[in-house]
């Protein structure tokens, strides 16, 4: 159980789990680069630590920080976001179970469910993120055990009403998991809205500097099959062993301390870029939850504390024009991943969502996704301006935007 002594996010981000080292006074918790711990006697541990797969003090520091920021019962750090998702699913599912997942979930989540879990007898049903009626219907006909959602979605930045989905799913006895990677706990705390567990790719906004892979599960006090969910995850983490190492935990903790200021700047910059994009003749449509015309805007305004740094837009001229845009920026790096201080651009259909090709989850090929960094926003707009100028304007308005 993690204490919550810090009422404000920015303070908790810096202090939760980060007490100075009692031995030396070091302000920053040391990197305990050790696999094992000597013991006072047989079955008598010195400070509760025995072997680093079970627990390591550098990991504990990060896990307490994560639990405090997501308002959870406990946090668990994994080697990657996918390792965290896999641990959560294996701890809660059995062969024969069904998962309901919001369509537009992360491509890797889609791959894990349809290509790995399917072989272990777990069936996944995808439902539209906009449609609570479809969720109810799917729950009525499938008796699903786990409902998995991600909001804002990737790449279309659709907004799912976490409170409504949680209420409906709980009425059917399902466990509700939210992938909170895109919003980060600075902007959204799903456990406060009724979710039972949160997962993260800490590789993204939480780490924030594109220098470390990691994942996390944060649990509520919910029970699952008569056991605390926290203990099920703790056991799975120990038994499965996909833990984050001490160096990676240190880097992730260090990134997390500045999350509040970073997310403010990401959101401010993205608001400017999204507004500017809506005025460009080469752009057919802009998806950003901070725009008033975005269909999820009012729910986002209720459940989020800012709209984040991710923007997707449709380029007139179809796939070729979208590829040209993605390949023509100078400052935005052509790259998968997101959430770092530097701006990135990608073509979701061929890059992040390649594993969904040929399925109903595959994104349209005229989409371009931006991870707007925290550089000077004028420089970002200038870069996009010269980039869009490379798209032949005779395409604008003539070619179907859904090529
Ligand atoms: C990147 C990502 C993941 C997977 O995380 P890794 O750290 O790459 O394993 C899961 N969900 C979302 C939304 C992501 O963006």
From TrEMBL:
Class of the enzyme per the UniProt entry, highest EC level: transferase
CDD domains: CGS_like
Cofactor entry: pyridoxal 5'-phosphate
Superkingdom, natural source: Bacteria
GO terms for MF: cystathionine gamma-synthase activity
Entry's EC annotation: 2.5.1.48
InterPro entries, A to Z: Cys/Met-Metab_PyrdxlP-dep_enz, PyrdxlP-dep_Trfase, PyrdxlP-dep_Trfase_major, PyrdxlP-dep_Trfase_small
Coiled coil: none
Signal sequence coordinates: none
Keyword terms of this UniProt record: Pyridoxal phosphate, Transferase
Family, similarity comment: Belongs to the trans-sulfuration enzymes family.
Name of the protein described by the UniProt record: Cystathionine gamma-synthase
Organism: Citricoccus muralis
């Amino acid at each position: 159980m993690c204490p919550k002594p810090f009422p404000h996010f920015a303070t908790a981000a810096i202090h939760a789990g980060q007490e100075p080292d009692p031995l030396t006074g070091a302000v920053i918790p040391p990197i305990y680069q050790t696999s094992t711990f000597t013991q006072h006697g047989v079955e008598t541990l010195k400070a509760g630590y025995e072997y680093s797969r079970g627990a390591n003090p550098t990991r504990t520091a990060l896990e307490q920080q994560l639990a405090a920021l997501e308002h959870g019962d406990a946090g668990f750090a994994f080697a990657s976001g996918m390792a965290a998702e896999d641990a959560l699913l294996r701890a809660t599912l059995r062969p024969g179970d069904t998962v309901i997942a919001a369509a537009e979930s992360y491509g890797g989540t889609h791959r894990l469910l349809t290509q790995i879990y399917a072989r272990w007898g777990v069936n996944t049903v995808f439902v539209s993120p906009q449609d609570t009626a479809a969720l109810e219907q799917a729950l009525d006909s499938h008796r699903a055990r786990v409902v998995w959602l991600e909001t804002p979605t990737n790449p279309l930045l659709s907004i799912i009403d976490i409170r409504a989905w949680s209420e409906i799913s709980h009425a059917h006895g399902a466990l509700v998991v939210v992938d909170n990677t895109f919003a980060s706990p600075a902007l959204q705390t799903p456990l406060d809205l009724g979710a039972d567990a949160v997962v993260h790719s800490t590789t993204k906004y939480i780490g924030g500097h594109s220098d470390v892979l990691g994942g996390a599960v944060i649990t509520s006090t919910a029970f699952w099959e008569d056991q605390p969910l926290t203990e099920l995850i703790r056991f799975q983490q120990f038994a499965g062993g996909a833990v984050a190492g001490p160096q990676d935990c240190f880097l992730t903790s260090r990134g997390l301390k500045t999350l509040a200021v970073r997310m403010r700047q990401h959101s401010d910059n993205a608001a400017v870029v999204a507004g500017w994009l809506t005025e460009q003749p080469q752009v057919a449509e802009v998806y950003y939850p901070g725009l008033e015309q975005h269909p999820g805007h009012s729910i986002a305004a209720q459940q989020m504390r800012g709209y984040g740094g991710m923007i997707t837009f449709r380029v007139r001229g179809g796939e070729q024009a979208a590829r040209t845009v993605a390949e023509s920026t100078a400052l935005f790096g052509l790259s998968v991943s997101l959430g770092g201080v530097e701006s990135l651009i990608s073509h979701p259909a061929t890059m992040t969502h390649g594993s969904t090709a040929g399925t109903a989850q595959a994104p349209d090929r005229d989409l371009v996704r931006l991870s707007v960094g925290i550089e000077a926003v004028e420089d970002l707009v200038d870069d996009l301006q010269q980039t869009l100028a490379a798209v032949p304007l005779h395409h604008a308005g003539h070619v179907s935007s859904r090529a």
